[in-house]
Inverse folding.
């Protein structure tokens, strides 16, 4: 039980740190780093749930693989947007992206 | 007991490096800190006897963060952090949101009754079980993930490509 609680606590703190990072940073790449930390916390929780509660259900590991895919997609699309934005405006500062508002 | 100690140690490393990501002003250090944080998460997986996912996490994050470091140096106004630029906003609200989110998740971890702890699974069984899961029950999900990655690659390239006539 202790290891499960330790892992869940680590996941929870990583979520908090990532949330702070995603909300506080002005740069698109740094915001993506915050999201990566949040997803890292989610991964820790998923693995802990699979290992300590339901190791017979491999859909738990499958869920981890899907979250890893989401992390890769987040990076790919995020960098695509960053490159497009940099070409258009010469900066990826989100403070300067208010003109995206409808 | 040893498993708890190693999970905790790697967990502390993951948290420490995650904090460093947002504390340092050098973007390269920031990317490396995120790499170490994700690597520590991979080591946690290994400590929790999830060998396949642990190795996958380590290899995937090593390449992902190396690419991220290149992008950061390319696009940041002050990649070395020597200019002392402040690249944060809404600090107070972010700190409160982060603390509240983290505390709420911690409360769930500590106060929910999680039930009995399952017996350990051997590594060989794990790889076989995951292989069967991917190739049988979750095949459609796995295939969908593959197609989604392909779509995202094409979309990202289409967004990033230089448009004709817009020099």
């Amino acid at each position: 039980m202790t290891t499960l609680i330790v892992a869940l606590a680590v996941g929870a703190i990583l979520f908090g740190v990532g949330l702070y990072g995603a909300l506080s940073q002005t740069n698109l790449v740094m915001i993506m780093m915050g999201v990566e930390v949040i997803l890292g916390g989610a991964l820790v929780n998923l693995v802990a749930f699979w290992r300590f509660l339901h190791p017979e259900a491999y859909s738990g590991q499958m869920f981890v693989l899907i979250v890893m895919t989401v992390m890769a997609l987040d990076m790919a699309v995020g960098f695509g947007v960053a490159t497009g934005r940099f070409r258009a405006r010469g900066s990826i500062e989100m403070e300067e992206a208010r003109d995206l508002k409808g | 007991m040893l498993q708890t100690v190693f999970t905790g140690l790697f967990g502390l490393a993951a948290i420490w490096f995650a904090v460093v990501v947002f504390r340092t002003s050098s973007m390269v250090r920031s990317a490396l800190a995120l790499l170490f944080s994700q690597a520590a998460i991979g080591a946690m997986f290994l400590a929790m006897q999830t060998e396949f996912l642990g190795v996958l996490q380590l290899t995937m994050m090593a390449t992902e963060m190396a690419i991220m470091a290149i992008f950061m140096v390319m696009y940041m106004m002050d990649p070395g952090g020597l200019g002392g630029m402040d690249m944060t906003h809404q600090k107070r609200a972010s700190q409160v949101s982060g603390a509240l989110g983290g505390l709420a998740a911690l409360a769930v971890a500590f106060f929910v009754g999680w039930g009995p702890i399952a017996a350990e699974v051997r590594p060989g069984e794990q790889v076989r079980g995951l292989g069967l899961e991917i190739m049988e029950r979750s095949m459609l999900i796995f295939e969908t993930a593959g197609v989604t990655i392909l779509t995202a690659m094409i979309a990202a390239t289409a967004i990033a490509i230089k448009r004709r006539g817009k020099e």
Observations:
- Chain B has two domains: 1-79, 123-167.
- Chain B touches chain A through 85 residues (CB under 8 Å).
